[in-house]
Amino acid sequence: MNHFLDIHTTDPAALRGMIDQAAAMKAARKGLPKGTPDAEQPLANRMVALIFEKPSTRTRVSFDVGVRQMGGQTMVLSGTDMQLGHGESIADTARVLSRYVDMIMIRTFEESVLLELAEYASVPVINGLTNRTHPCQIMADIQTYEEHRGPIKGKKVVWTGDGNNVAASFLHAAGQFGFDFVFSGPAQLDPEAEFIELARSKGANVTIERNPEKAVEGADLVVADTWVSMHDSQSTRQRRHNLLQAYQVNDALMAHAKPDALFMHCLPAHREEEVTSSVMDGPHSVIFDEAENRLHAQKAVMRWCLGK
Ligand code: CP
Ligand code: NVA
After folding, report:
1. Which residue in 33, 92, 166, 242 is a FRET match for 197, CA 20 to 30 A apart?
2. Is residue 137 in contact with ligand 1, taking CB distance under 6 Å?
3. Which ligand has the nearest atom to the CA of 225?
């Protein structure tokens, strides 16, 4: 059994295997109604708990559908409805849930909750986003890049805006998949130094370029995310908008990237804030393939967690 807690703590060969399996599973069910069971049923007789302490559309639906396509059953739990939200310890929750279910996916605030759950659970635990990281998103993003443009190794990925949880997982992936990563945002919102140092220690070429036009010069992939994440206080909203306005991804900025550059956004997006509709709906954008691939990538993650 394996936990899927982060990209940088997962073996690169295992990550590569998951991306390839995700692509194969996607191809195998092309055109089928979404409720059609997969030919293989690796989650037959398996029960999966999906715990959400924050809102979600993609993570919730893609995990639920993915488990069902592979023959398993799900229960979707809201953190506030559980005793977890009323003082029961994470360690006790982990040990109790492990008696009922075969795998746990959790979206939470503090990373320490995820790590403690994994420490005490005797079933695999999957990170469905914390304040610090979002590894499942980046698995889908790598799959999406490669299905459109081939291997991501050696490519130039430019992150614009807030150095947030999704940016952190991109940095982890830069180290594991060997692509160049450029962060372009204000110094106040840089990714944590630890993430940058880790990527560099694994040989990734990581740079910070404050000028967004210079940053996207020659980019193979441009990525944006919301300027205010779910864990950010709304009181910081105006300050963040002021700091980040210059980093909006619009047609003028995309014109500095390679002509065949892709644009990604994990969604939900705030149209005309971090990205314009002209880019989201334009020729560079693969945002809905990216959203779809959450399903396929996470199915591969779940199989790996269960050794299937
Ligand atoms: N990208 C993503 O994780 O979306 P949700 O918040 O809707 O799950
Ligand atoms: N950075 C965003 C990602 C949402 C999927 C957040 O944490 O709110």
Report:
1. 242
2. yes
3. 2
Q: Two tokens at 123?
A: 């079933």
In this model, does residue 49 exceed pLDDT 90?
yes
Q: Give 175's pLDDT tier (boundaries 50, 70, 90).
A: very high
Collapsed DSSP state (helix, strand, coil) of residue 107: strand
| The overall pTM is greater than 0.70 | yes
Q: Is the CB of 54 under 6 A from ligand 2?
A: no
Backbone angles phi, psi at 116, to 5 degrees: -70, -40
Sheet holding 221-224, edge to edge: 206-208, 180-184, 156-160, 221-224, 262-265
Nearest ligand to residue 133 Cα: 2
Range 86-103 average pLDDT: 96
236 token code pair: 């910081």
Atom of ligand 2 nearest to the CA of 230: 8
Residue/partner pairs of 126-131 with CB below 8 Å, 24 or more apart: 126/3, 126/4, 126/5, 126/298, 126/301, 126/302, 126/305, 127/4, 127/5, 127/6, 128/50, 128/51, 128/52, 128/56, 128/59, 128/63, 129/54, 129/56, 129/59, 129/165, 130/165, 131/165, 131/229, 131/231
Nearest Cα residue to 46 out of 307, 306, 273, 277: 306
